[in-house]
């Protein structure tokens, strides 16, 4: 890369930082120490992994959640961890969208999926809530299901009689944590592709 290319890249990055966010990246979960490392907090885990890799913090309390500022593939992004509890996640998402005038096509949501084993990912451009209350809240309050999502597998209930809430609020077993960390890193890689218009490539590389 020549010196002019380097200056051009720096200008592009500075422009991204001084403008408004182009993308809203939402990791779903529940606030509070008692919910840390639970299956329902897979979205939090993924977005925190992204923050660690990009050396940014998601600690500014705005829009009923914690936010940060990160540039991915030259695109300024607003990472958001709603603090409304899962069932009201849409409240935080709508506030951030309205404030920055971010369209639904520039929203990406990361969340847990019990139909996938820990470590597995599934990327979708849009879709129904599929029984997930956080996604249901976002769809209801935005009036649209046309937002991209990255589903992180957390495993199915060990037996059908077990209450679903008890399962998703249970903590990952030690042998599952490594798989989840790998999935979180892959989710971060997906985000870099998706915000640069390469969702199909992300799906081809990482979909399970």
Structure description:
The chain contains seven helices and eight strands. It is of the alpha/beta class. The chain has a single domain, classed as 3-Layer(aba) Sandwich (Rossmann fold). Strands 1, 2, 3, 4, 5, 6, 7 and 8 form an eight-stranded mixed β-sheet that branches.
What is the gist of this entry?
This protein has 208 residues and is an alpha/beta fold.
CATH architecture: 3-Layer(aba) Sandwich
| Overall radius of gyration | 17 Å
Distance between the termini: 36 Å
The succession of helices and strands, N to C, reads HEHEEEEHEEHEHHH
CATH T-level fold name? Rossmann fold
The level of helicity is 40-55%
- CATH class assignment: Alpha Beta
What percentage of amino acids are in beta strands? Answer: 15-25%
The average pLDDT is: 90
Tally of DSSP helical segments: 7
Overall spatial form: globular
Poorly predicted ranges (pLDDT <50, ≥5 residues)? none
Number of strands: 8
